[in-house]
Amino acid sequence: MFQANLTSVTMFSFLGFSHYPKVEIIIFVLCLLMYLITLLGNMILISITILDSHLHTPMYFFLSNLSCLDIWYTSSAFPPMLINFVSGENTISFLGCAAQMYFSLAMGSTECVAICNPLRYPIIINKRVCVRIAAGSWVTGCITALVETVSVLQLSLCGNSVINHFACEILAVLKLVCVDTSKVQLIILVFTILLVPMPVLLICISYAFILSNILRISSVDGRSKAFSTCAAHLSVVVLFYGTALSMYLKPSAIDSKEIDKFIALVYGALTPMLNPVIYSLRNKEVKAAVKKLLIGNSLVLS
């Protein structure tokens, strides 16, 4: 069997959702809408966080970081996918594939780094600490992504350069390799355990403390609103981490290429779209900031 180093391949092709021609156009429209909503929602949040001094708090600093991550994360995969669908080419260069793999892994890994005790942000941390925590998250994500990307791209390819996915997802690219991948799989497994189950555990502990504080609220209406907010937050957490876990911690013997594509749509497009709505745009502080900004702009224009 012909073997070639991945670095000697000049172009890759994507199968995408070609196995589902009847729903391919629906998937395209949904992905386009989700990407545009993701850009709009996250850009609104970043803008008002910068412009409104009342939102210059640790919580909104981290939420604006999350918005930056979501924009970069979705932009690494979905614009090329949408362009390929329109053009009908479904190809990507080696360097383009390497960059796409790296940035999607880096942004996804950075987003997985959990930050707990949000109720105590104003008390326990200041601006300098916020910057250090955010920088640590970004550095961790970028380093782990670099290690994973380099580990995969130095392996040998079995003559097939057709990726059964809509993007250069690391597990999909790994299936093209015909040499022993146990070391690379071990690296991916270690990073996945550190960046997915561990943060989930910390998030659960954090929300356990939050729920215990909610139970102390005397007002029934107050408790109901607080529970509703927590339920919405946890639903997005479960959606993101649950799909990531099912993708990266499933047994290698399970062949689920087609299901993996739809799972990737959930954590790669749906959750970045929901994040600004669930975490920020429903908050009264954000609503007040948006209203204030709109009124100010209308006064300037008049």
H/E order of the elements? EEHHEHHHEEHHHHHH
The CATH class is identified as Mainly Alpha
Q: What structural class should be given to the helix and strand makeup? A: mainly alpha
Spatial order of the strands forming the largest sheet: 3-2-5
Indicate the proportion of strand residues. under 5%
What is the straight-line distance between the termini?
72 Å
Mean pLDDT: 83
Shape: globular
Helix percentage: over 70%
The biggest sheet, with number of strands, parallel, antiparallel or mixed sense and barrel status, is: 3 strands, mixed
CATH topology: Rhopdopsin 7-helix transmembrane proteins
Rg is 21 Å
The CATH architecture classification is Up-down Bundle
Provide the low-confidence segments as ranges.
Answer: none
Topology (elements, then pairings):
Blueprint: E1 4-5, E2 11-14, H1 21-51, H2 58-87, E3 91-93, H3 94-112, H4 121-124, H5 127-153, E4 156-157, E5 162-163, H6 170-174, H7 182-195, H8 197-214, H9 220-248, H10 257-281, H11 284-301
Parallel strand pairs: 2-5
Antiparallel strand pairs: 1-4, 2-3
Pfam families: 7tm_4
GO molecular function: G protein-coupled receptor activity; olfactory receptor activity
Function: Putative odorant or sperm cell receptor.
